[in-house]
Structure formats: structure tokens, C-alpha cells
Amino acid sequence: MAEQTNGGSVKRYLRGINLLAGETDGMVYYYILNEHGDVAQLWGQSGTCKALYEYDAFGNERKPEKGDENPFRYCGEYLDLETDTYYLRARSYRAGTGRFTQEDTLWCAKNQLPNGQEIPDPLSLNKYTYCHNNPTRYSDPSGHFIISTTAIVTAVAATAFAAAGAFMGKWLAEKMEVAKEDQWKYVVGGAVGGAVLGATVGYLAGPAIVAATGVGGISVTSGGISLVEAGTVGGAGATGFEQARQLLEAQKLNASGSFEDFFLDAGNGKGILATIDANGVVEFAIEAGKGSSIPGREMFAQMMNHFGSNVNAVRGNWSYGDNLGMVNRLTSAGVPLEEAVLKTWTAGQSALYGFTNAAIQTIKGIPGAYTKLGVLFTR
Asked: Under DSSP, is residue 237 helix (H, G, I), strand (E, B) or coil?
């Protein structure tokens, strides 16, 4: 791959499985990637490190150097230094906002409930979100769909083992003095065997890496995630009270039927559904915004009025969505977690009813890259 600059000079880049090296004015330098696929270091031919790169979860560079013209940074992708956007084939991505600059071409994907009925996938309703607001778990190399860590580990392992298998096949054929016209059979056999072994190792190692790092998940397209957590912006779209109850059960919100549930359909796949437990703790899922006949704050108000004096606390379990996205953006800028949680949408709405204290019950991830938070808002 080559790039011609305004001055007429040509920069060349070498790719294998990932970005390997670049050449500018006869000088070769090598790219070192981290586990996420980000360019972490740039090394020269002399063995000296030319540049170091650090990013937050969404790709914002922590200590950018002025004058650095290296165009490959976050996820190993091409950064347009003039517009400060990453080229991801179908669309461009701006790390500063954690959003694509163009809409997704997929509109309102559907998820299937256990009873066979379909509801809109809440994560497909916002056309600009990047990696379902969870870039520590997923990557999106095309602007159309996301890939899990397990899938990446499996693919890389299969490729590496296939190459090793082909090499071993070639070595074995020469060792056995096989005729040159027949040696290809050993090479192909070794490559296929190595790919199978590598895929198996990668598949088995993927969950271990996920468990060790908190980064991972299943392979999924932009319309393929069916998990919806309570307390996040996203997750309604049912068309009746019974269907809402089924969705609550599928989401494990303890909707046993022993307590009164709440469901409000705002049209166009928007709405809110909630449950309250014996201790008066409310958990909810909401989808508002464009196309909704009722604003999100009004849906929340109707929910709180419905449960009335029975409400003793509001719980949020965030594994993606606007709440988690807000926390990650703030903590990546140095804001303490406890303070960042109080600046979320759910915290603001809960505070209107006197629930101004936030107790963090579950934490997974690190500042700027949290993958799951459990928060209880109390008086």
C-alpha cells in the first residue's frame, strides 16, 4: 500500500495479518500493536523506539505529539490527520465523540423473544454508535458490524498455526526426500492441520483471555446482539403488557409476577418497561429519542408515579448504552467513578425524586474502559 503526499514523496506500508511496517524517504519503521490491535509503538531500523501511543477505550490518544504524521493509530486503522476521523471503509469514526460521522445502513434490526415474537434491537436504533458503546469488547473494522475478541483470537491462531503447519509439511517432505512435484501435498496437509489446531486453540483460549482481561464476548453483527440489561437507555419496543413481561423475564429482571410491572409503549419501537421487587428497588429498560411520542424523562416520571411510595431505590445495571458511555468518557478524562456515575441520565432522573446517593455495587473494567457497572440510587 502506498500514499503520495502533497510534496510528491511516496510513503509505503506493508501489511500481513496486521500492519507490519512503513517506509518514508528510505527510512523503514515497524509497527508494534497491543492486544486490542492499536498501534502502541513505532520502532526504527536501528532498534530505537520512535513513538509511543496510549488511548482510552474509544480511541482518544492520551498524550499526542504535535507533528507526528504517522497515519495509523487506534485499532491499527487509518487516521485522517486533517479531519481527525478514522477511515473504517463504510463510514468514518471520530474518537472524540465516540460516534460514527454517518448513519448505519442497517435500520432497526430485530431480536426474537422466547415466544417467537420479534422486537427492535435497541442497539440498532441509534445509527451512530460505535461498537455498541463497548469498544473494549468489540471492534468494527468495516463500519457495518462488530467482531468479538474470541473471534479475533481464533482467526489469528488459525492463521499462525496454518503457516507453521505448512512450514513443517515442507520440512517433512524434504526430510523424507519426497519428489518436488508431490511436496505440495505435504504443505497443504500441514497448513490445513495447523489451521484446525490453531482454530481450536484460539477458540478455547478466547474465553480464558476474556476472563483474564475482561475483554471479549461472542461474535455479533450490528443487528445480532440480543442481550438487553436493565437501567440502560435502550431496550423497549414490546407491543403489549404480556410481551413486556416476557421481555423482563428474558432480561432476568426478576419479573416473577409477584409484584406489579410497568410498561409504556411510546410507538416506533420506543417505550419503557420496569419491575419493582419486594424491597422497593426499581429496575427498568427504556428506549426514547427520535420517533418516540413520549420524551424519555416523561416515561421515567410515569414509571415513578406508577410505583409511587413503594419505590425505595432505583437500580442500574449497565453493560452498554448511554449511561456506561458517559461514565467511560468522564473517567477517561480523570473524573472519579463516583462522580461520573452521578452525571449519568439515570442519576439525573433519579435525583428528581430524591434518590441522590449512588452506591456502586458491581465494577468490571478500568477507568475509561468499564464493561459493566451496577449502581443503586438511594435517598
From this structure: coil
Q: How many helices (H) and strands (E) does the chain have?
A: 7, 20
- Gyration radius of the chain's alpha carbons: 25
Distance set, CA 260 to CA 256, 273, 275, 278 (Å): 10, 11, 7, 10
pLDDT digits (tens, 9 = 90+) for 103-153: 887 666 666 666 667 766 676 778 888 887 888 777 788 877 666 555 666
Distance, C-alpha 331 to centroid of its chain: 17
Amino acid at 338: E
CA distances 27 to 3, 10, 35, 41, 327, Å, are 15, 12, 26, 16, 42
* pTM to 2 decimal places: 0.43
* Domains delineated in the chain: 2-100 (no CATH), 147-213 (no CATH), 241-378 (3.40.630)
- CA 282 – CA 313 distance, rounded (Å): 6
